[in-house]
Amino acid sequence: MSSTTKRLAGWAVGVALIFFSVPRTARAAYFYTEGLAYGGATTWSHDPSFQAALHSGFEFLDVISVDVLGRIGYAAVDERMLMTLGIGTKLALPFDRFIPHLRLTALHAHETSISAMGNDTFGHIMGVGDGIRHRFGVEGAIGFSVVFAKLKKNRFFAQTEAYFDGFPDDRGPKFYAGGGLGLGVQVGL
Fold first, then answer.
1. CATH architecture assignment, domain 27-188
2. Residues contacting 80, CB < 8 A, separation 6+
């Protein structure tokens, strides 16, 4: 067995031990919505980005969620509008107040120069205007939530998250990375 395989097996055993040692109580399934504000940069020089995101999903088995992402923002090079839609999964460790998580999301992104939007701003926002660069990518994110209030089956939390987006084409930056802060709510069923 190679040293890499041994390390991966060690990590897998460690994660499994942490998961199964977490004290668990039966919880209801949850719908959740999270709003975050992100700041970041790209692989293009002098290209900061600022974005707002909305994650919504359904959590089941206390650990895994189906997650939908909508994000809109601005980046400096070409003064461009960024719009991203995504679907993926969120994995969380079910601690009571502190909840670390990982996300993996398939992305469809639009990048449009503000000057190209012209008189068809609505068309560009809807993804059908001229000059839109349509791109497919993948996002990985890691973060944690802190539950600050509970009301019956509902939980309110503050959240922080770091993300990394990769795109295989060269119609824009290959990579975006950044971090964000936000608030969210889980509604128990």
1. Beta Barrel (2.40)
2. 74, 111, 112, 113, 114
